[in-house]
Specification:
The protein is mainly alpha-helical and 358 residues long. The chain is 63% helix and 2% strand. The structure holds benzoyl coenzyme A. The site of benzoyl coenzyme A (BYC) has 29 residues, from helix 3, helix 7 and helix 10.
Length: 358
């Protein structure tokens, strides 16, 4: 058993063959089937638009950019997709911190490729958000001004090489558990972007798992370093799923619109259940003395993360918030000449085409 395969301790496999990646493939097949069976056309002239929208969503058809949608649905998607895109971009920093210090050429090449994938995910997601009528420039400015959020997890420091393994195993693992259901999101461009993102995230998780496995089976000092990383990343990873259901402001509406398919707590539970068995194989301990199998619930009981800490980190007061956003602002300013050159080149090309056409 490896990476994000999921099975319950009683030996019962997850309901979908192939675990989470199997679910991504099933979602991809569903997307193709929905496109092939066509869908009802636009609303009739006198039809109630909200009822039309609800009918499309209830029929598990995708809402596409030109379709009518409630303003609040559009705003929710822009908020969530932008937050997701910003997370990918800011998320390059904690791991980027170790590229020049990776312990071998092979590890360095793998980490470079992973961080590049994250830039790619950010770009697909900005492109998906742009289909909702907002530009990438505007979104980037909202991030830089602190008016849009990114995931809390990227405000924690990466203190040792083992943190790169823990990020892969736990952070990418949590991300996959959260994002696989988004492959079935009602908004077509987001669902389609998620298919590719999840496939790549699965490799990311495996590389982290493999780093931790190597360290955990190495010298006592390496084992201790791996355990220390898991101790520090476990609770922040649980907090990635957001506030508990009772405090989640958007979940009920997002689930009704089929943007989210499961609640924050349901996904958090699924993640815990998946990790327990993987930790055993790694030979590492999950830092929770109260973690135990509950036969009645067919799930593990576990200690909740500190949600006050989550709220502090979200509101800008985590260990690395200021550093991360300062780095992003500096990188954006340093890249101004590239954007200007690209605009000048595009204008020159457009001028040449006009001259040829004249
Ligand atoms: N961090 O009503 P709720 C990655 C906010 S990148 C920050 O439950 P919702 C990777 C929430 O926005 C992983 N803020 O919200 C990259 C809301 O505030 P606003 C990123 C959080 O949206 C590089 C308020 O709290 N993944 O995988 O229904 C390297 C109330 O929450 C957080 C995504 O972005 C948080 N943890 O549910 C490695 C996935 N939690 O906006 C890996 C897409 C909550 O009202 N996003 N908030 O001011 C989602 O699935 C959902 O937006 C969430 C939150 C589950 C995160």
């Amino acid at each position: 058993m490896y990476g994000n395969d999921f099975s319950a301790p009683n030996g019962a496999q997850d309901e979908t063959p192939g675990g989470l990646l199997g679910e991504v493939e099933a979602a991809e097949a569903e997307l193709r089937a929905a496109a092939a069976r066509g869908r009802r056309g636009g609303p009739a002239p006198d039809e109630d638009l909200a009822a039309y929208f609800a009918e499309v969503v209830d029929a598990e058809q995708k809402i596409e950019p030109r379709d009518w949608m409630p303003d609040a649905y559009r705003r929710t998607l822009i908020r969530q997709i932008a937050q997701h895109a910003h997370s990918e971009i800011i998320g390059m920093q904690p791991e980027g911190n170790w590229i020049s210090r990776a312990p071998s050429l092979k590890r360095k090449a793998i980490l470079l490729a992973k961080v590049q994938d994250e830039a790619g995910h950010g770009l697909y997601l900005y492109a998906a958000a742009e289909t909702l009528g907002i530009s990438r420039d505007e979104l980037v400015q909202l991030l830089l001004d602190g008016r849009q959020k990114y995931s809390s997890i990227f405000n924690y420091p990466t203190l040792s090489w083992a943190d790169v393994g823990a990020i892969g195993w736990l952070v990418d693992g949590a991300a996959i558990v959260n994002q696989v259901p988004l492959c079935r999101c009602s908004y077509g461009p987001y669902a389609r972007a998620m298919i590719r993102v999840c496939k790549e995230e699965s490799f990311h998780q495996r590389q982290g798992y493999e780093i931790l496995h190597t360290l955990a089976h190495g010298t006592p000092a390496q084992h201790a370093m791996a355990q220390d990383a898991v101790d520090r990343w476990w609770y922040p990873s649980l907090a990635m799923f957001g506030p508990p259901d009772g405090d989640s402001t958007h979940s009920a509406q997002s689930m009704a619109w089929k943007i989210k398919r499961f609640s924050n707590d349901d996904l958090r539970q699924r993640f815990v259940d998946m990790c327990v068995q993987q930790a055993e194989i790694l030979g590492l301990r999950i830092p929770d003395a109260d973690l135990r199998w509950n036969d009645e619930r067919q799930a593990y009981d576990y200690t909740q993360p500190d949600y006050d800490e989550l709220m502090r980190v979200i509101s800008g007061d985590g260990p690395c918030n200021r550093e991360r956003i300062a780095n992003r602002r500096a990188a954006h300013a340093d890249g101004a000449w590239v954007r200007e050159a690209a605009v000048a080149y595009a204008a020159k090309r457009a001028g040449q085409k006009e001259t040829v056409a004249a």
